[in-house]
Amino acid sequence: MWRYRNPVDVKFGAGVFETLGKVLAGRAYCLVTYDDANGGGVFADLARRVVAQAGAPAVTVSNIGPNPDFVGLTESCRTYAAAKQSVEAIVALGGGSVMDAAKVLAAASGDFETVRRHLVGGKDGEALGRTPIIAIPTTAGTGSEVTSWATVWDTGAMKKYSLARETLYPEAALVDPLLTLGLPRAITISTGLDALSHALESIWNVNANPVSSSLAEVAAREVIEALPLLADDLRSEALRTRLARASLLAGLAFSNTRTALAHSLSYHLTLHHGVPHGIACSFSLPMVMRAVAGCDAACDASLRRIFGNDLPAGAARLESFLKKLGISPDATAHGIAARDWARLVDDALAGDRGRNFIGRREALLAEMAA
Predict the structure, then answer these.
(1) Is residue 262 within 8 Å of residue 270, measured between CB atoms?
(2) CA angle at residue 261 from 220 to 361, to 5 degrees?
(3) Dihedral angle, C-alpha 34, 37, 38, 44, nearest 10 °
(4) How far apart are CA 224 and CA 206, in angstroms?
(5) Do 43 and 50 touch, CB atoms closer than 8 A?
(6) φ, ψ of residue 154 in degrees (nearest 5)
């Protein structure tokens, strides 16, 4: 038996951003976005477009960093609590960090301590809020517009938490590829690789099902084919559309499975070495693919539909794909000492996401030694 469910109302296509006013339907809203200090005016312009459609927000939260943490989110919640009228919906306009922050705000209802207690203690989930979210991604990679969780960091304690509640699925996702046209090359690559990791990790996953795997296969093939082309042609609307669609499909896939080992490995790299998330969760994919081949017939069949019948050759092509994009598959290139790698793999396998992995520790260690 298997089950697939995703309740988000998805609208996709060039110009779909302009339907926001209709989707909000006059509700008082909180706008969550970036402050644009280094954005060249992009997000200030997008915010003006939001106001033109939906009127002024009840409050704007814009202190969003790359990895939302306890300190910044506490400030975000204080700003939210000071809204001039009761917030009826949240508009999340940005990348994965904005989506994460919006979900925290939806759950906190202005009091981050409520969320912090739940994350640290694992209790009091019934006390969390459920403000509706309209998610508008401006990157192609996170898939957070169709998932029910947010990554939250306690940088003081050097810990990563996942806020996961069924009530945090966005009400609607407006996926407009035109909003990704201005992304620089580095962010385009990093976010695209995040989408690839979402797709592959939902395949070598104990929670995989026929729907999630079918979505993941299409997403992975699209990223592998289109991302190198887009990296050399950043203004291509057609390629931006392909990556946005692939990211969405990968999000729909892992919304049911969650991620697995590569993401579990990534958290240490991001916390301790500052490696961007999309790079941290993708450099190990060839190693993981080699280690998982032969472990599960359904997984192997999915991987063959992506990479061809020769899976070792497919893993080699995946490695070449990463190298072409400037990403080393060698852990030491990302700050991990060779002597620490086995311990980090063991820690990752023991984590929540690592336990989703269908592969064997011995095969991983053999790949590391190869």
Answers:
(1) no
(2) 125
(3) 60
(4) 24
(5) no
(6) -105, 90
Q: CA separation (Å) from 129 to 60, 135, 183, 285?
A: 19, 17, 33, 36
CA pair distance 194, 276, nearest whole angstrom: 10
Under a CB-based contact definition with an 8 Å cutoff, are residues 124 and 232 in contact? no
Q: Which tokens is 43 given? A: 């997000």
Answer whether residue 39 shows pLDDT above 70: no
Q: What is the pTM of this model?
A: 0.95
Question: The tokens of 226 are what?
Answer: 């289109």
Residue 350 tokens read as: 């023991």
What is the rounded distance in angstroms from the CA atom of residue 239 to the CA atom of residue 181?
Answer: 10
Size of the chain in residues: 370
**Is 321 in contact with 329 (CB distance < 8 Å)?**
no
What are the distances in angstroms from CA 257 to CA 159, 199, 215?
Answer: 22, 10, 12
276-316 pLDDT, tens digit each: 999 999 999 999 999 999 999 999 999 999 999 999 999 99
User: How far apart are the C-alpha atoms of 69 and 159, rounded to whole Å?
Assistant: 10
At 335 the pLDDT is: 86
Helix/strand/coil (H, E, C) string of the chain? CCCCCCCCEEEECCCHHHHHHHHHCCCCEEEECCCCCCCCCHHHHHHHHHHHHHCCCCEEECCCCCCCEHHHHHHHHHHHHCCCCCCCEEEEEECHHHHHHHHHHHHHCCCHHHHHHHHHHCCCHHHCCCCCEEEEECCCCCCHHHCCEEEEEECCCCEEEEEECHHHCCCEEEECHHHHCCCCHHHHHHHHHHHHHHHHHHHCECCCCHHHHHHHHHHHHHHHHHHHHHHCCCCCHHHHHHHHHHHHHHHHHHHHHCCCHHHHHHHHHHHHHCCCHHHHCCCCHHHHHHHHCCCCHHHHHHHHHHHCCCHHHHHHHHHHHHHHCCCCCCHHHHCCCHHHHHHHHHHHHHCCCHHHECCCHHHHHHHHHC
Do the Cβ atoms of 181 and 191 come closer than 8 Å?
A: no
